[in-house]
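Box 4.2: Ligand-aware structure prediction
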Amino acid sequence: MKIGKYIGPAFVIFALALPNAVFLFELVHQVPPPIGRLTRPMLTLHQVLFVLGCTGLLVSAAFAIYRFALARRALHLVLFFILLDVFYRLAYGGPVSPGLLHAVPETSQRESLELLAGHPALTFFLSGVALLGTWATVHSWRLDLRFSIKRYVQLGVIAASMIVASLAIEMLPTRKPQPISAAVVEELQGIFPVDIAVAFSAVAIDGLQARHTAAARAAFAFANPHMTDAAARRGTQEIYVVVVGETSRRRNWSLFGYTRHTNPRLEEISGDLVLFNRMTSNATNTILSLPLALSRAAPTAREAERSEKSIVGLLKQAGFSTYWISNQERPALSSSPIAQIALEADHVSFPNDAPQAASTDRFDSNLITRLDETLAHLPPDAKAVIFLHMEGSHFSYRQRYPQNFAVYPDAHDPPRSLPERQTRLVDEYDNSVLFTDQNLREAIDGLTRCRCKAGLIFFSDHGERLFDNGLTDEDFGHGFPDIARQEIEIPFFAWFSSEYRNSNPSVLTRLRDNAKSAAQLHNLFETIVDMTGVDYDRRATTLSLFSDQWQPPASLQVLGLNENIVTLPPEGVAGTAPEASLSRNGQ
Ligand SMILES: [Zn+2]
């Protein structure tokens, strides 16, 4: 028997098993474990059976088509995607994403070489796999090899029963047949080559959708935007920073009354901050909330999200240098509303654009590094607006801060009384707030050093459920079909340099007056317009929190997950004042 004869089929088995073995390893080592219905050993058993079953089914399908020359050749060529798949999984974790497929053509040769050099062992291993794959492909090109139907049917049946068993385990706690859960669909999308197929089709669909809205937004221009008192402002430096927080809830900020001391650095300068302690977001996830905060759209009139540029575009048109500096990965799809807003800026920087910088500091502190670099290079007469997009307190919380910020649990600063697992998550969440506090203070200190007219606004895109009303999956996270108060209660504050305060004293008084009222994030657009001293034709000045005509909302408008409008009373559900919920939360 010639061994060479089997190199083709052997490579097929290897190529289907390798990325899925890596995926299975990732799945069972997911840290922290997902809070699910299953105990950890049962969950692991489900995952092992599922991934093995899917891989087995793929191998049997591959052998079923192996006798057909065209299918066999195509199969061998497709299997070269394991190089991309395995590299991405081992270097970054997680399956191949549409974002990666978008990034591949944009990556320069130098960047690719740097990236490979950064992972020498992996590169060496995958070069070996590539050689093996080439040999196998050449060898099997003209092969006449037939497997008995019995063999691959047997394998297929075994694999299918493993999948059935894994699904049965998943349904075990409910004790009745159920539709395939979202968790299983997610697992399926991690299986090679399903992940590759999903990523490619997402990119294709996205391209079609993005073309439509991008064209409308590109053609849009605000009417006559300009800096007010432009002549007087010429020659002086003005810098404004808008920090877009992530999943930060007001209830866990000591600046707003949380019993734990999570804002030590901002509390030191709290006299210089205008605190809005009744601000709410208009949605409970990033993708719905940020367009409402940063465009002229309101929950009841959202057309502007699709047809107009955002505040970034307006400021650019008015003559500001605009920056979008993000610690969130470049949005996978260019039709993503966040990508469209970010890409309006003159200068755009995502962490995955610069693999070296991101690998040395993956925390939000890298935003401060990039902010400081930007500030250092601004000319003395610059007019700049810099947007910083944080990772903030997004799950998994404990990956959001460096080890020296892991101060909780702290016996002197106890948390609410909750079971062990929930306590750990609250501790980790609070550590992430503590780190956000540090980064915001550093941003403010950087602006202070400019000794120029400067202002900073911080807001979070939405809040988070953190076991306020129970201990189950539904009491933890954000973006649920129904809306919980703590998902929309967000920290919001403004800071201004002494140079800014001295030149605009009356404006700041009005902002402080309005800060006492309930307000919503869709007021941000016109508020930034006023902060930066801009005007344009037919603007709705009364929507600005700087306006003496500003009216607090009679009710809060929030977008549900199905983009339906939910109306909530501003004072809290059933007459619960925010202060009351805070103290209850603190117990
Ligand atoms: Zn978010």
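In the box above, the bound molecule is zinc ion. Confidence is low (pLDDT under 50) at residues 572-587.
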